Amino acid sequence: MAELMNRDEFRSALEEAIKGKSANKAPFSVAWASGKLTRAHLAKWAENHYHYVGPFADYLAYIYANTPDTYTEAKDFLLQNMYEEELGGDRHTDLLIRFAEACGTTAERVEDPDNMSPTTRGLQSWCYAVAMREHPVVAVAGLVVGLESQVPSIYRKQTPTLREKYGFTDEEVEFFDLHIVSDEIHGERGYQIVLEHADTPELQQRCLKICEIGAQMRLLYTTALYHDYVAGDLPLSELELAA
C-alpha cells in the first residue's frame, strides 16, 4: 500500500504524472508552432476549442458545489476562477470568438456544437464527469493541474507564430496572451490546493492518476485535431514526426 508523501515528494509526483504527455507533442501543436497550419486549420481549432473551454466555469461550479465549506481558500479560488472566465473583463469565450473570426469562421459556427469533433465531445464530457462525480480535490487535480496548468507552456510556443507568421494583431490574439498569464497563476493555485487537501495516501494516488489521465485527454484531443482537419493537407513526414 502506498504511503503518504510529503509535499515535495507529492509535487514531484504530480509533475511526473503529466511529463511526457504534453499537448505540445501533438502534431497539430508542432504544425502550429512551426507556422505550417493555415488560417482555415486554426479556425477548426477555434470551433472545437470553444466547446472544451467554453463550459470551464460550469466545470468549476460543479466542483465548487461539492467542496466542503472548510476548504475556504479552495472555494475562493474556484469562485475567482469562474469570475475571471465569465465576468472579469472580457469574457474568455468572446476573446476566443474574436480570434476565430480573424481566422475566417463565424461566431455562429463556433457556437454550434455540431462543428466539434467526436474527440472534442469526449473531452468535454470527461470534464463534466470529473467535475460532477469526483472528490473535489481529485477534480481540481484533473482539471486545473492536469489540464489548465499545461496552457502557458503550449501558448508560449504558439502565440509568437500567430503574430510573426500569420500576422494576427494583438487584439486578435488577446485570448492567448491572457491565458499565458492567468493559467500560470491558476495552475499553481491548483497545485497548492491538491498539495494541501490530498491528505491520505488514497487521495494522493487518485490525484496522480487523474492528472495523468487529464494530460492524456488533452494530448488525444489535440492529436485528433490534426487527423480530423490537417492530415490531408500536411503529412506527418513534413513535420518530422513518426506516423
UniProtKB/TrEMBL annotation:
Keywords, comma-separated and alphabetical: Oxidoreductase
Organism of provenance: Billgrantia endophytica
UniProt protein name: Aldehyde dehydrogenase
Family matches, as InterPro entries: Haem_Oase-like_multi-hlx, PqqC-like
Pfam families in alphabetical order: Haem_oxygenas_2
SUPFAM superfamilies: Heme oxygenase-like (SSF48613)
Molecular function terms from GO: oxidoreductase activity
